[in-house]
Each structure stands twice: as C-alpha cells, then as structure tokens.
Write a structure and sequence with these properties.
GO terms for molecular function: carbon-nitrogen ligase activity, with glutamine as amido-N-donor. It is a single chain. With 150 residues, the chain is mostly helical. The chain folds into two domains: 3-90, Orthogonal Bundle (Hypothetical Protein Yqey, Chain: A, domain1), CATH 1.10.1510; 98-148, Arc Repressor Mutant, subunit A (Orthogonal Bundle), CATH 1.10.10. Helices cover 75% and strands 0% of the residues. The chain has helices at 3-16, 22-42, 48-71, 75-89, 98-112, 120-131, 137-148. Helix 2 packs across helix 4, helix 3 packs antiparallel against helix 4 (75-89) and helix 5 (98-112) crosses helix 7 (137-148).
C-alpha cells in the first residue's frame, strides 16, 4: 500500500470516527491537498519518496509556526499545532535520534574529508539525501556546524 493510499484509508476511518477523528481528519485533508498541489505543479504522480518530502515540508512549517506561537505566548495554538504534528509523524519514516544524526555527520565529514566551516555546504549536500524526511534539517545543520567548529 502506498503512502497516498494509506492517507485515503485513514481519512475514511477518521470520517467514520466522527468527533474523535476531527483533528486527524483535518490534518489528513490538509496533507492530501498539499500533495495534490505539488503534483499539479510538477505535472507528475508522486512516489512515496516525493510524498515524504511534502510531509516533511508540512512538518517543518508546523515546527516553525510552533516556535513563533510559543514566543507569542499562545498556548491554545501551540497545543493544536502539536496535535497536528503527531498526526503527520505517523506518516513520516522513523525519525533519527540526535545520536544517529551525530554518527551520520561524523561518517560524512570523514568520507568527504571536511576540514572546517568552509566545507559546510559539501557536508550538508552529502547528508541531505540520507536525512530527508527522517530528521529536522535545522538540527542536522546545527550538529554539522558544531562538528566542523563553525
């Protein structure tokens, strides 16, 4: 079953669940709309990898909004965003822990032979395919900067 099929099936289940499935249903609908819009833009049918990219983008949007609403002291909006993020996480691959990210970064730095902050772009370029959809890009960047002494 593809990820898009799973979203459709889960949407049906959420619709039948009435009140308990409201947040889940709205998030699934938003995600499906984002996927459909991206497919229309690119004029292709998305594979699971491309769907994961869209899901990761949606997750990033919510993470960034969460920070802003926490700073603005808006607890009700923060709670709603966290609930949405939980639903999206169900469809993303298992997320990498910080330790796993550090190990990947270390391996990549050694493999590329990165010397310092000037090689940040090379390291990030090599890491991106390995972490796409599996780790927060901001955290990966932070770990790379830390290891390169930037």
């Amino acid at each position: 079953m593809t990820l898009k099929d799973r979203l459709v099936e889960d949407m049906k289940v959420a619709m039948k669940a009435k009140e308990e499935g409201k947040v889940r249903l709205s998030v699934i609908r938003m995600v499906r709309a984002a996927i459909k819009n991206a497919e229309i833009d690119k004029k292709i049918e998305f594979s699971d990898e491309q769907v994961i990219e869209v899901l990761a983008r949606e997750m990033k949007l919510r993470r960034d909004a969460l920070e802003a609403f926490e700073k603005a002291d808006r607890p009700e909006t923060v709670k709603a965003l966290e609930e949405e993020m939980v639903v999206i996480m169900d469809y993303l691959p298992q997320q990498l822990s910080e330790g796993e990210i550090r190990q990947l970064v270390q391996e990549t730095v050694i493999k590329i032979g990165a010397q310092g902050s000037k090689d940040l772009g090379k390291v990030m370029g090599a890491l991106s395919p390995k972490t796409k959809g599996r780790a927060d890009g901001k955290l990966v960047n932070q770990v790379v900067r830390e290891m390169l002494g930037a």
